Amino acid sequence: MNKIVSAEFLAADIKRFVVEAPKIAAKRKAGQFVIVRIDEKGERIPLTIADSNKDQGTITIIVQGIGKTTKEINSHKTGDYFLDVVGPLGKPSHIENFGTAVSIGGGVGTAIAFPTAVALKEAGNHTIVINGARNKDLVILEEELKNVADELYITTDDGSYGYHGFVTQKLQELIDSGRKIDFVLAIGPIPMMKAVANTTRPYGIKTVVSLNPVMVDGTGMCGGCRATVDNKTVFVCVDGPEFDAHLVDFELLTKRNRTYNQNEKVALESHLCAIDKAFFEAVKTETIHQ
User: Fold this and answer.
1) Taking residues 93-111, what's their average pLDDT?
2) What is the mean pLDDT of the chain?
3) Helix (H, G, I), strand (E, B), or coil: what is residue 144?
4) Quick check: 16 and 74 in contact, CB under 8 A?
5) Closest among 137, 22, 9 to 62, alpha carbons compared
6) What pLDDT, in 10s, does the model give residues 52-93?
7) 249 in helix, strand or coil?
8) What is the tens place of the pLDDT at every residue in 225-284?
9) Distance from C-alpha of 240 to C-alpha of 253, rounded to nearest angstrom
10) How confident is the model at residue 113, as a pLDDT?
């Protein structure tokens, strides 16, 4: 079992956990992930390692409560335990001194872009980070990114904070200004990553995307993360999760990512009904005792 050293919400439904996992902390590299289970019957959830501390033997993961299991994970508090945390898994990010490197994070994808931005900076790159969110309340890791990036740009879809627009619009502005950009990493919703690939393609800028959002089991066994890259079939969790953005078939990826939508909806609705029922019973019991 893995003890939760600290747990805190960074934004609505987005929670940061620092978890005891000394062996993983000692070996993990940027871009790798872990599998988390909360109990013996629990779903296996792949989560990118956002940070680690070798001395304290801890890793940091950031979870967005979207489905049944991620909401259950986010109900855990400091001092609680996860049944098991397995990793590090996946291939590490390819890091070198490219020159000027741009890390782009959309929403909770910022948690994945962060460790790679750290590694790119340590490799000697001039590091630019574009951190996008729907609105101000969903911006995460701003202070942490300020300590890493040579340049940090916050974008919000509604203009409530930072640059009013999408991450791709800010990226295009940087390109149009004449800046020489040598490398781009993007992680976030599939439409965002596709848009970044389309933005950089005409300029021949080396661009990598992390396809973490499509992972399911995390071992390559279930086939749920199957994708097509350079007209070849790959399994994101074992062959990636990072791939050349200009070779990814985003149209097929989008279709495959919708495969479990109905199952996820049913599971979540059932889970919420159980919570509502438990809450009702608790209120009824409290009323009776009064």
Assistant:
1) 92
2) 87
3) helix
4) no
5) 9
6) 999 999 999 999 888 888 899 999 999 999 999 999 999 999
7) coil
8) 888 999 999 998 888 899 999 999 999 888 876 655 454 444 445 555 554 444 344 334
9) 14
10) 87
What is the DSSP-derived secondary structure letter of residue 13? T
Sequence ranges of the domains in the chain: 2-89, 100-257, 260-290
Give me the sign of the Cα torsion angle 159, 170, 66, 25.
negative
Distance CA 231, CA 237 (A): 18
- Please report the sign of the dihedral spanned by the C-alpha atoms of residue 265, residue 67, residue 192, residue 36: negative
Question: Which strand (E) or helix (H) includes residue 52?
Answer: strand 45-53
Tokens of 255: 């279709």
Sole residue written with tokens 């890791």: 141
| Tokens representing residue 20 in the block | 């005891």
Three-class SS of residue 202? helix
Distance, in Å, from the CA atom of 234 to the CA atom of 28, rounded to the nearest integer, reads: 23
Q: Count CB atoms within 10 A of the CB of residue 84.
A: 17
Mean pLDDT of 125-137: 95
Residues in the chain: 290
14 φ/ψ angles, rounded to the nearest 5 degrees: -120, 120
CB-CB contact of 213 with 256 (8 Å): no
- The CATH class given to the 2-89 domain equals mainly beta
Q: Tell me which residue of 97, 32, 94 sits closest to 243, measured CA to CA.
A: 94
Enter the tokens of residue 45: 């959830």
Query: Hey, what are 110's tokens?
Result: 């910022």
Residue with tokens 């438990």: 278
Residue type, 288: I
Q: Domain 100-257 carries which CATH code? A: 3.40.50.80
